[in-house]
Amino acid sequence: MNQLFSLRNSLTGLSLFAAAGLAQAQDTLTIYGVADVFSEGLWGGGGRVARLQSGGLSGSRLGFRGRENLGGGLDADFVLETGLNMDDGSYGQGAIFGRQAYVGWGYQPFGRVMLGRQYSSLYRLSDEFSIWSNLSNGPSSAVVGGFGGYEPVRGSSDSATGSGGPARLNNSVRYESPVWAGFRFGVEGGFGEVVNDTGGNRVADAYVRYAQGPVAISAAMLDDKGGTVTPDAHRRSYIVGAAYSFGNLRLKGAYLEVDDRTPANLDGSGWWLGADYRLGVSLVKIQYVVNNPRYIDNARTQGLGIGYEYSLSKRTTLYTGLTYFRNQDGAGLGRASFSIPAGVTSTTDNDLTQFIGGMRFTF
Q: For the chain, where are the alpha helices, taking DSSP H only?
Protein backbone atom coordinates (compact mmCIF):
# COMPACT_ATOMS: atom_id res chain seq x y z
CA MET A 1 0.00 0.00 0.00
CA ASN A 2 2.88 2.36 0.84
CA GLN A 3 4.30 1.71 -2.63
CA LEU A 4 1.03 2.80 -4.22
CA PHE A 5 1.04 6.11 -2.34
CA SER A 6 4.71 6.56 -3.24
CA LEU A 7 3.85 5.95 -6.91
CA ARG A 8 1.04 8.50 -6.72
CA ASN A 9 3.34 11.15 -5.22
CA SER A 10 6.05 10.49 -7.80
CA LEU A 11 3.60 10.69 -10.69
CA THR A 12 2.09 13.88 -9.31
CA GLY A 13 5.50 15.47 -9.28
CA LEU A 14 6.20 14.24 -12.81
CA SER A 15 2.85 15.62 -13.98
CA LEU A 16 3.59 19.06 -12.53
CA PHE A 17 7.05 19.10 -14.05
CA ALA A 18 5.78 18.02 -17.49
CA ALA A 19 2.89 20.48 -17.37
CA ALA A 20 5.28 23.33 -16.57
CA GLY A 21 7.57 22.35 -19.43
CA LEU A 22 4.73 22.20 -21.94
CA ALA A 23 2.74 25.15 -20.66
CA GLN A 24 3.38 27.12 -23.85
CA ALA A 25 1.99 24.42 -26.12
CA GLN A 26 -0.47 22.29 -24.16
CA ASP A 27 -3.50 23.16 -22.07
CA THR A 28 -3.64 19.93 -20.07
CA LEU A 29 -1.40 16.95 -19.35
CA THR A 30 -2.74 14.26 -17.01
CA ILE A 31 -1.07 11.15 -15.63
CA TYR A 32 -3.60 8.70 -14.21
CA GLY A 33 -3.95 5.07 -13.23
CA VAL A 34 -5.75 2.21 -11.54
CA ALA A 35 -4.25 -0.38 -9.20
CA ASP A 36 -6.81 -3.17 -8.68
CA VAL A 37 -6.07 -6.59 -7.14
CA PHE A 38 -8.41 -9.27 -5.81
CA SER A 39 -8.19 -12.73 -4.29
CA GLU A 40 -10.33 -15.43 -5.86
CA GLY A 41 -11.64 -18.83 -4.89
CA LEU A 42 -13.05 -21.23 -7.52
CA TRP A 43 -15.04 -24.38 -6.83
CA GLY A 44 -16.09 -26.81 -9.55
CA GLY A 45 -16.99 -30.41 -10.21
CA GLY A 46 -13.33 -31.39 -10.51
CA GLY A 47 -11.71 -29.45 -7.67
CA ARG A 48 -10.97 -26.02 -6.27
CA VAL A 49 -8.23 -23.38 -6.43
CA ALA A 50 -7.29 -20.09 -4.73
CA ARG A 51 -5.34 -17.41 -6.58
CA LEU A 52 -4.58 -13.68 -6.85
CA GLN A 53 -5.86 -11.78 -9.91
CA SER A 54 -5.76 -8.24 -11.35
CA GLY A 55 -8.63 -5.98 -12.36
CA GLY A 56 -11.74 -6.91 -10.39
CA LEU A 57 -13.60 -3.60 -10.67
CA SER A 58 -11.45 -1.86 -13.29
CA GLY A 59 -8.56 -3.03 -15.41
CA SER A 60 -5.29 -1.98 -13.77
CA ARG A 61 -3.51 0.63 -15.91
CA LEU A 62 -1.15 3.57 -16.22
CA GLY A 63 -2.11 6.33 -18.64
CA PHE A 64 -1.09 9.67 -20.10
CA ARG A 65 -3.65 12.06 -21.55
CA GLY A 66 -3.23 15.55 -22.99
CA ARG A 67 -5.25 18.17 -24.85
CA GLU A 68 -4.29 21.45 -26.52
CA ASN A 69 -6.65 24.25 -27.53
CA LEU A 70 -5.66 25.35 -31.03
CA GLY A 71 -8.14 28.23 -31.20
CA GLY A 72 -11.19 28.82 -33.36
CA GLY A 73 -13.02 25.80 -31.93
CA LEU A 74 -10.19 23.42 -32.92
CA ASP A 75 -8.27 21.23 -30.44
CA ALA A 76 -5.86 18.29 -30.48
CA ASP A 77 -5.46 15.45 -27.97
CA PHE A 78 -3.67 12.15 -27.32
CA VAL A 79 -3.99 9.10 -25.07
CA LEU A 80 -1.29 6.54 -24.20
CA GLU A 81 -2.55 3.84 -21.82
CA THR A 82 -0.84 0.63 -20.77
CA GLY A 83 -2.60 -2.29 -19.11
CA LEU A 84 -1.00 -3.81 -16.01
CA ASN A 85 -1.37 -7.21 -14.38
CA MET A 86 -0.92 -6.35 -10.72
CA ASP A 87 -0.53 -9.99 -9.63
CA ASP A 88 2.69 -10.55 -11.60
CA GLY A 89 3.70 -7.13 -12.97
CA SER A 90 3.30 -8.04 -16.65
CA TYR A 91 1.64 -6.01 -19.40
CA GLY A 92 -2.11 -6.45 -19.59
CA GLN A 93 -2.52 -6.76 -23.37
CA GLY A 94 0.95 -7.92 -24.35
CA ALA A 95 1.99 -4.44 -25.54
CA ILE A 96 3.45 -1.37 -23.84
CA PHE A 97 0.40 0.76 -24.62
CA GLY A 98 -1.99 -2.09 -25.28
CA ARG A 99 -5.12 -0.51 -23.84
CA GLN A 100 -5.14 2.62 -26.01
CA ALA A 101 -2.68 4.64 -28.10
CA TYR A 102 -4.07 7.36 -30.34
CA VAL A 103 -3.97 11.01 -31.37
CA GLY A 104 -6.99 13.05 -32.40
CA TRP A 105 -8.36 16.43 -33.27
CA GLY A 106 -11.77 18.00 -33.01
CA TYR A 107 -13.66 20.93 -34.45
CA GLN A 108 -16.65 21.75 -32.29
CA PRO A 109 -19.39 21.97 -34.96
CA PHE A 110 -18.26 18.80 -36.77
CA GLY A 111 -17.07 16.30 -34.16
CA ARG A 112 -13.75 14.47 -33.62
CA VAL A 113 -11.34 12.28 -35.59
CA MET A 114 -8.95 9.87 -33.81
CA LEU A 115 -6.14 7.67 -35.22
CA GLY A 116 -4.34 4.73 -33.59
CA ARG A 117 -5.26 1.80 -31.34
CA GLN A 118 -8.73 2.42 -29.94
CA TYR A 119 -11.74 0.73 -28.37
CA SER A 120 -14.34 -0.62 -30.75
CA SER A 121 -18.01 0.26 -30.29
CA LEU A 122 -18.68 -3.38 -29.41
CA TYR A 123 -16.29 -3.18 -26.48
CA ARG A 124 -17.54 0.19 -25.25
CA LEU A 125 -21.21 -0.86 -25.31
CA SER A 126 -20.52 -4.18 -23.57
CA ASP A 127 -18.73 -2.20 -20.86
CA GLU A 128 -21.20 0.68 -20.41
CA PHE A 129 -24.38 -1.39 -20.30
CA SER A 130 -23.17 -4.10 -17.92
CA ILE A 131 -23.24 -3.80 -14.13
CA TRP A 132 -20.14 -6.02 -14.07
CA SER A 133 -18.61 -4.24 -17.07
CA ASN A 134 -16.54 -6.61 -19.26
CA LEU A 135 -14.01 -7.69 -16.67
CA SER A 136 -12.37 -10.92 -15.55
CA ASN A 137 -14.71 -11.70 -12.67
CA GLY A 138 -18.35 -12.36 -11.92
CA PRO A 139 -21.23 -12.56 -14.41
CA SER A 140 -19.70 -9.89 -16.64
CA SER A 141 -20.55 -9.22 -20.28
CA ALA A 142 -17.30 -11.04 -21.18
CA VAL A 143 -19.15 -14.32 -20.52
CA VAL A 144 -20.95 -13.77 -23.83
CA GLY A 145 -18.70 -15.19 -26.55
CA GLY A 146 -16.25 -18.02 -26.83
CA PHE A 147 -17.63 -19.08 -30.20
CA GLY A 148 -14.97 -21.40 -31.53
CA GLY A 149 -12.13 -19.32 -30.07
CA TYR A 150 -13.50 -16.01 -31.34
CA GLU A 151 -14.41 -13.85 -28.34
CA PRO A 152 -16.56 -10.95 -29.54
CA VAL A 153 -16.17 -8.93 -26.34
CA ARG A 154 -12.60 -9.46 -25.21
CA GLY A 155 -11.07 -9.85 -28.65
CA SER A 156 -8.92 -12.39 -30.44
CA SER A 157 -5.71 -12.62 -32.44
CA ASP A 158 -7.89 -13.95 -35.28
CA SER A 159 -8.87 -10.47 -36.43
CA ALA A 160 -8.02 -8.30 -39.40
CA THR A 161 -6.22 -5.82 -37.14
CA GLY A 162 -4.33 -8.49 -35.21
CA SER A 163 -3.85 -8.25 -31.45
CA GLY A 164 -6.93 -7.20 -29.54
CA GLY A 165 -9.52 -7.06 -32.32
CA PRO A 166 -12.37 -6.60 -32.18
CA ALA A 167 -12.28 -5.25 -28.60
CA ARG A 168 -9.53 -2.80 -29.54
CA LEU A 169 -8.80 -1.97 -33.16
CA ASN A 170 -5.23 -1.52 -34.33
CA ASN A 171 -4.44 0.81 -37.23
CA SER A 172 -7.85 2.44 -36.86
CA VAL A 173 -9.47 5.75 -37.76
CA ARG A 174 -12.59 6.83 -35.86
CA TYR A 175 -15.02 9.69 -36.34
CA GLU A 176 -17.52 10.75 -33.65
CA SER A 177 -20.23 13.31 -34.27
CA PRO A 178 -21.28 16.08 -31.89
CA VAL A 179 -24.39 15.48 -29.76
CA TRP A 180 -27.65 16.65 -31.32
CA ALA A 181 -30.72 16.50 -29.02
CA GLY A 182 -29.22 13.56 -27.17
CA PHE A 183 -28.16 11.65 -30.32
CA ARG A 184 -24.59 10.84 -31.38
CA PHE A 185 -23.13 8.46 -33.97
CA GLY A 186 -19.68 7.21 -34.85
CA VAL A 187 -17.85 5.15 -37.45
CA GLU A 188 -14.47 3.43 -37.25
CA GLY A 189 -12.26 1.44 -39.60
CA GLY A 190 -9.27 -0.77 -38.84
CA PHE A 191 -6.78 -1.42 -41.66
CA GLY A 192 -5.46 -4.96 -42.07
CA GLU A 193 -2.53 -3.49 -44.04
CA VAL A 194 -2.25 -6.42 -46.45
CA VAL A 195 -0.81 -5.65 -49.90
CA ASN A 196 -3.45 -5.81 -52.65
CA ASP A 197 -6.15 -6.79 -50.14
CA THR A 198 -7.25 -3.52 -48.55
CA GLY A 199 -10.96 -4.32 -48.76
CA GLY A 200 -10.64 -8.01 -47.93
CA ASN A 201 -8.70 -7.59 -44.70
CA ARG A 202 -10.21 -4.91 -42.48
CA VAL A 203 -12.59 -4.10 -39.62
CA ALA A 204 -15.58 -1.77 -40.04
CA ASP A 205 -17.46 -0.43 -37.01
CA ALA A 206 -20.48 1.86 -36.55
CA TYR A 207 -22.69 2.90 -33.65
CA VAL A 208 -25.55 5.21 -32.72
CA ARG A 209 -26.39 6.41 -29.21
CA TYR A 210 -29.18 8.32 -27.48
CA ALA A 211 -28.84 9.63 -23.92
CA GLN A 212 -31.23 12.06 -22.27
CA GLY A 213 -31.94 12.34 -18.57
CA PRO A 214 -32.20 8.88 -16.93
CA VAL A 215 -32.31 6.97 -20.26
CA ALA A 216 -29.44 5.74 -22.44
CA ILE A 217 -29.82 3.49 -25.51
CA SER A 218 -27.11 2.45 -27.96
CA ALA A 219 -26.62 0.00 -30.84
CA ALA A 220 -23.52 -1.01 -32.79
CA MET A 221 -22.35 -3.27 -35.60
CA LEU A 222 -18.80 -4.54 -36.14
CA ASP A 223 -17.74 -6.35 -39.32
CA ASP A 224 -14.39 -8.16 -39.10
CA LYS A 225 -13.11 -9.49 -42.42
CA GLY A 226 -9.86 -11.39 -42.73
CA GLY A 227 -7.43 -12.25 -39.97
CA THR A 228 -3.90 -13.09 -38.93
CA VAL A 229 -4.72 -16.73 -38.06
CA THR A 230 -7.54 -17.46 -40.53
CA PRO A 231 -7.18 -15.12 -43.55
CA ASP A 232 -10.66 -15.98 -44.91
CA ALA A 233 -12.39 -15.26 -41.58
CA HIS A 234 -15.46 -13.04 -41.75
CA ARG A 235 -17.55 -12.38 -38.66
CA ARG A 236 -20.15 -9.75 -37.94
CA SER A 237 -21.31 -8.80 -34.44
CA TYR A 238 -24.35 -6.77 -33.38
CA ILE A 239 -25.11 -5.34 -29.95
CA VAL A 240 -27.91 -3.23 -28.50
CA GLY A 241 -27.86 -1.97 -24.90
CA ALA A 242 -30.01 0.18 -22.65
CA ALA A 243 -29.82 1.72 -19.18
CA TYR A 244 -32.33 3.48 -16.96
CA SER A 245 -31.75 5.25 -13.64
CA PHE A 246 -34.21 6.44 -11.06
CA GLY A 247 -32.98 7.68 -7.73
CA ASN A 248 -30.18 5.49 -6.45
CA LEU A 249 -31.22 2.49 -8.58
CA ARG A 250 -29.76 1.72 -12.02
CA LEU A 251 -30.91 -0.94 -14.49
CA LYS A 252 -28.67 -2.11 -17.35
CA GLY A 253 -28.92 -4.77 -20.02
CA ALA A 254 -27.84 -5.72 -23.53
CA TYR A 255 -28.15 -8.35 -26.27
CA LEU A 256 -25.21 -9.43 -28.45
CA GLU A 257 -25.37 -11.50 -31.64
CA VAL A 258 -22.44 -13.01 -33.59
CA ASP A 259 -22.90 -13.96 -37.26
CA ASP A 260 -19.95 -16.12 -38.34
CA ARG A 261 -19.76 -16.06 -42.15
CA THR A 262 -16.94 -18.58 -42.48
CA PRO A 263 -17.70 -22.17 -43.60
CA ALA A 264 -17.57 -23.26 -39.94
CA ASN A 265 -20.59 -21.02 -39.23
CA LEU A 266 -19.82 -20.56 -35.52
CA ASP A 267 -22.84 -18.40 -34.71
CA GLY A 268 -23.87 -17.48 -31.19
CA SER A 269 -25.69 -14.97 -29.04
CA GLY A 270 -25.98 -13.82 -25.46
CA TRP A 271 -27.60 -11.29 -23.20
CA TRP A 272 -27.40 -9.89 -19.69
CA LEU A 273 -29.55 -7.92 -17.27
CA GLY A 274 -28.35 -6.26 -14.07
CA ALA A 275 -29.07 -3.67 -11.43
CA ASP A 276 -27.24 -1.81 -8.70
CA TYR A 277 -28.34 0.34 -5.78
CA ARG A 278 -26.24 2.95 -4.02
CA LEU A 279 -26.71 3.84 -0.36
CA GLY A 280 -24.08 6.36 0.70
CA VAL A 281 -20.64 4.75 0.43
CA SER A 282 -22.14 1.32 -0.23
CA LEU A 283 -23.10 -0.16 -3.59
CA VAL A 284 -25.01 -3.45 -3.98
CA LYS A 285 -25.25 -5.05 -7.41
CA ILE A 286 -26.69 -8.12 -9.12
CA GLN A 287 -26.52 -9.43 -12.68
CA TYR A 288 -27.69 -12.43 -14.73
CA VAL A 289 -25.91 -13.34 -17.95
CA VAL A 290 -26.58 -15.98 -20.63
CA ASN A 291 -24.27 -17.31 -23.36
CA ASN A 292 -25.64 -19.51 -26.15
CA PRO A 293 -23.24 -20.81 -28.86
CA ARG A 294 -25.82 -22.14 -31.32
CA TYR A 295 -23.42 -24.28 -33.34
CA ILE A 296 -22.93 -26.65 -30.37
CA ASP A 297 -25.73 -28.69 -28.86
CA ASN A 298 -26.30 -28.51 -25.11
CA ALA A 299 -23.76 -25.68 -24.62
CA ARG A 300 -25.70 -22.96 -22.78
CA THR A 301 -24.04 -21.01 -19.96
CA GLN A 302 -25.91 -19.08 -17.26
CA GLY A 303 -24.27 -16.90 -14.62
CA LEU A 304 -25.86 -15.21 -11.62
CA GLY A 305 -23.83 -13.00 -9.31
CA ILE A 306 -24.19 -10.56 -6.46
CA GLY A 307 -21.60 -8.02 -5.36
CA TYR A 308 -20.88 -5.35 -2.79
CA GLU A 309 -18.59 -2.29 -2.93
CA TYR A 310 -17.57 -0.02 -0.07
CA SER A 311 -15.86 3.32 -0.79
CA LEU A 312 -13.23 4.05 1.85
CA SER A 313 -12.46 7.34 0.09
CA LYS A 314 -12.74 8.98 -3.30
CA ARG A 315 -9.82 6.86 -4.51
CA THR A 316 -10.04 3.60 -2.56
CA THR A 317 -12.78 0.96 -2.82
CA LEU A 318 -13.13 -2.45 -1.19
CA TYR A 319 -15.29 -5.03 -2.97
CA THR A 320 -16.51 -8.62 -2.87
CA GLY A 321 -18.72 -10.84 -4.99
CA LEU A 322 -20.22 -14.32 -5.32
CA THR A 323 -21.18 -15.86 -8.68
CA TYR A 324 -22.60 -19.21 -9.71
CA PHE A 325 -22.19 -20.46 -13.29
CA ARG A 326 -24.54 -23.19 -14.46
CA ASN A 327 -23.06 -24.81 -17.56
CA GLN A 328 -24.54 -27.45 -19.81
CA ASP A 329 -22.33 -30.38 -20.77
CA GLY A 330 -21.20 -28.86 -24.05
CA ALA A 331 -20.36 -25.40 -22.66
CA GLY A 332 -16.89 -24.29 -23.72
CA LEU A 333 -15.02 -21.00 -23.64
CA GLY A 334 -18.14 -19.00 -22.80
CA ARG A 335 -18.66 -20.69 -19.44
CA ALA A 336 -16.96 -17.91 -17.50
CA SER A 337 -15.47 -14.46 -18.03
CA PHE A 338 -12.03 -15.63 -16.87
CA SER A 339 -9.54 -18.44 -17.40
CA ILE A 340 -10.32 -21.68 -15.55
CA PRO A 341 -7.37 -23.81 -14.42
CA ALA A 342 -7.41 -27.41 -15.62
CA GLY A 343 -9.00 -29.76 -13.09
CA VAL A 344 -11.42 -27.30 -11.50
CA THR A 345 -14.28 -28.50 -13.70
CA SER A 346 -14.83 -32.01 -15.04
CA THR A 347 -16.38 -33.60 -18.12
CA THR A 348 -19.44 -34.58 -16.09
CA ASP A 349 -19.78 -31.35 -14.05
CA ASN A 350 -19.02 -28.00 -15.68
CA ASP A 351 -20.74 -25.87 -13.02
CA LEU A 352 -18.56 -23.33 -11.27
CA THR A 353 -18.73 -21.09 -8.18
CA GLN A 354 -16.53 -18.01 -7.80
CA PHE A 355 -15.92 -15.88 -4.71
CA ILE A 356 -13.77 -12.73 -4.82
CA GLY A 357 -12.57 -10.02 -2.46
CA GLY A 358 -10.33 -7.13 -3.46
CA MET A 359 -9.33 -3.48 -3.43
CA ARG A 360 -9.12 -0.81 -6.13
CA PHE A 361 -6.98 2.32 -5.82
CA THR A 362 -7.23 5.10 -8.43
CA PHE A 363 -4.92 8.08 -8.97
A: 2-21, 121-128
